[in-house]
Write a structure and sequence with these properties.
Keywords: Signal. This protein has 95 residues and is mostly helical. It contains five helices and no strands. Helix 1 packs across helix 2. The radius of gyration is 14 Å and the shape is globular. It starts with a helix and ends in a 7-residue tail after the last helix.
Length: 95
């Protein structure tokens, strides 16, 4: 689940990432859209800024993305979870 959340959180960061990730995980499109909308909302109202946290850029991104995830009550669909899990476990690889 953690790697899944990281992937989806990164989707929220840019349109380019969103397009690339969603072409790999199309069943996650709805959840990704929720994440993206919440990210923009929190950014626009000043709850998420690059300067709002201590540490490295990566740590700041992690903290901000945790805020986004925790602000959403929804969960990814089972299909989305299965698709990401298959990818993460290498189920897409021919051996």
């Amino acid at each position: 689940m953690n790697s899944f959340v990281v992937i989806l959180l990164l989707v929220s960061l840019s349109v380019a990432n969103s397009h690339n990730i969603m072409s790999i995980f199309p069943t996650c499109n709805e959840f990704s859209q929720l994440m993206s909308e919440k990210f923009k909302e929190l950014r626009d109202n000043g709850e998420i800024t690059r300067d709002s946290c201590q540490g490295s850029r990566a740590e700041c991104m992690k903290v901000n993305m945790e805020k986004v995830r925790c602000a959403i009550d929804a969960e990814p669909s089972e299909e989305c979870m299965a698709e990401v899990q298959t990818f993460m476990k290498g189920g897409i690889c021919s051996k």
